[in-house]
Amino acid sequence: MAQPNEDRSEAETNATIAEQNDRFRTTWGADFTVPGQIMLTRGVADLSPAAKAIIMQRVQTFSEFSESNEPYGDHTFGAFEFEIAGNSYHIFWKINLYDKDYSMGSDDPADVGVTRRVLTILHASEY
């Protein structure tokens, strides 16, 4: 198992993770230098194609990070609301950092060589 880089400060590590998370999220996983998967909960998967397109766009362009919703500054969580066809939705997205086998947390989340991301998108009520 790789050991975390002891020379990085927590702030530097979180900034590195934030940059990687942003690359993964904003490219919808198409930047293969940051490996991972995107998962939709059943409640989101069952929405209309138009609603899912709005969600995808809002997740990719999310930039409203603050101390209250991102205390570590690693860009692993976001929330937003939108309306379509008379329905209102409150959506959360969350990035979890796993080992290469997706079986447990990564030993060094800032190292893309040993870390896999899972971006999960869900209704707030499914949290």
Automatic annotation (TrEMBL):
Record Pfam families: DUF3768
Keywords of this entry: Hydrolase, Metal-binding, Zinc
Region (Disordered) location: 1-22
GO biological process: purine ribonucleoside monophosphate biosynthetic process
Biased composition (Basic and acidic residues): 1-11
Required cofactor(s): Zn(2+)
Protein name in UniProt: DUF3768 domain-containing protein
Species this chain originates from: Sulfitobacter geojensis
